[in-house]
Protein: Porin
Amino acid sequence: MRKTASSWLLAAGLLSAAAPSAHAEPGVTLYGIVSSAVRYTSNLDGHHNDQAALVSGGLVGSRFGLKGDEDLGGGNRALFQFEAGIGSDDGRASYNALFGRQAFVGLSGAWGSLTVGRQYNALNNIGWAFDPLAQGWGNFWSDPLYIGGDIFFQDYRIDNSVVYKRAIGPLTVQLDYGVGEQRGSLARGTTLGGGVMYQQGALALGAAYDQRKSDDGGNTVRNYSVGGSYAFGKATAYLGHMGRRESAGDARFNIAFAGLGYQLTPALHLSGAYYRYWQGGNVTTQFQDVPALLGSGNADSIAVVADYALSRRTSVYVEADAVHARGGAVGRETEYWAGTPAAGVDSSTRVGVMLGMRHQF
Structure:
């Protein structure tokens, strides 16, 4: 059950071939995950107000999807995938779309694969591959990578995109481009990125870059991720760094992390990690009608996860985390989780615990 960085493709929504599945027809697979958790969070808003909630996702976003392929001969195949995000707490569709997680069609062969549609960028695939607490399943509800807001992945998915992937020995390469579709400009609204993953034996290394130009051309957001992992015995060590730069206002964000996963028993996997976040430049709030200047700040976080497999398809898990934010990071932290930045608070500590269940089909 030990999960290493080779699961970065899984984070892109491609479930393991070993996973149980129901076949709607030859060449088409119906699959999904349902995951929910009960979470308690202290000091959610920086003003000592706590919260208890049933959260959808928990350790992984709930979803269902269809994927399939067709043999075209000569080693080439046609392929497609549609994947919908579902709130397992209220049944609503996620991302304001029926198939908001993925929707693409393309071709593959010995030359690689070329797909078009709504797809994960390389930054998402490689960034999550080295997060110690998210191995094999992608993000989870309270991941410390969200300390400054959900900002390090360029929205994860690219609409109107063209993605090329190819595996060459121990290297996997991805290039992605999103068409801006803005009248009168081929640059405004576009995304451009790529990444490379190296895996040989116990060692995995990866790096990715992605940039997005705003629809009006006034801002370019640049994100990057580097990381590595090394497996030894029943343990895997992880190390990573992610950064974000915004040309308008010169806002800068960084997060570095290190952690360890350990397969204590065939059913029980343990993981823990430390995260250091810092921001600088003209950092403002994200979601207020009139952005407020927050400025520089930093935060530290620790988190642990225990995941116990009841069967090949069903697991239960418990997670705990603590975040201590200072300066302008308090505003980013509290605005993301509570909706409003804490005013007049120089430092804030948030503690959370989560107990949940995950079922895969």
Summary: The domain at 5-15+110-355 is CATH 2.40.160.10 (Porin). The first helix runs from residue 8 to 11. The chain has three helices and 18 strands. Confidence is low (pLDDT under 50) at residues 1-25.
